[in-house]
Write a structure and sequence with these properties.
By secondary structure, the protein is an alpha/beta fold. Helix content is about 25%, strand content about 30%. Strands 5-4-1-6-7-9-8 form a seven-stranded mixed beta sheet, with helices on both faces. A two-stranded antiparallel ribbon has the order 2-3.
Length: about 150
């Protein structure tokens, strides 16, 4: 479970600044922070933002996550998708095992404008047109830009 308020803040700021219309949440970040709504740190992701969760752990997903996610798919279903198209992919959950991170990054780099992930994943971001380092205290993430992105 993620308990760092710095990671929560980074996530909220990226969501607020990019204002994505479609988000792919690999590992279900809200589940990793114990969230039961789209509200984090007094900021809320609007209902107009479509959020699809990819469940990567064996734990059964509780019904409450239906209030956060517009759609939840299993990791096996994600592997079989022919096409994915999202403004932002988020991979900040501790439910995504290290061995699978490269596989997910390869898939989203082909069809997502941005990826918010941990700094440890930089080695898998060779196709990114830009990588922005985001660090607060000891916590660090990166925002990878693929293609032109949503903002200049």
């Amino acid at each position: 479970m993620i308990t760092s308020s710095n990671i929560l803040y980074i996530y909220c700021e990226i969501m607020e600044q990019l204002e994505p219309k479609k988000v792919l949440d690999i590992g279900m970040f809200y589940k990793s922070v114990g969230g039961v709504s789209r509200r984090i740190l007094n900021k809320e992701v609007p209902e107009s933002c479509f959020i699809e969760g990819v469940c990567t752990d064996k734990a059964k997903t509780l019904g409450v996550y239906g209030t956060i996610y517009d759609k939840i798919i299993d990791e096996k279903d994600f592997d079989g998708l022919n096409e994915i198209d999202f403004d932002l992919a988020v991979m900040l959950s501790d439910a995504v095992v290290k061995a699978d991170r490269e596989k997910f990054i390869r898939r989203v780099s082909e069809s997502c404008s941005y990826l918010l992930t941990y700094e440890d994943d930089v080695t898998f971001l060779e196709t990114a047109s830009d990588i922005k380092s985001l660090k607060i205290g000891e916590d660090s993430c990166v925002l990878a830009v693929f293609g032109k992105g949503l903002i200049a």
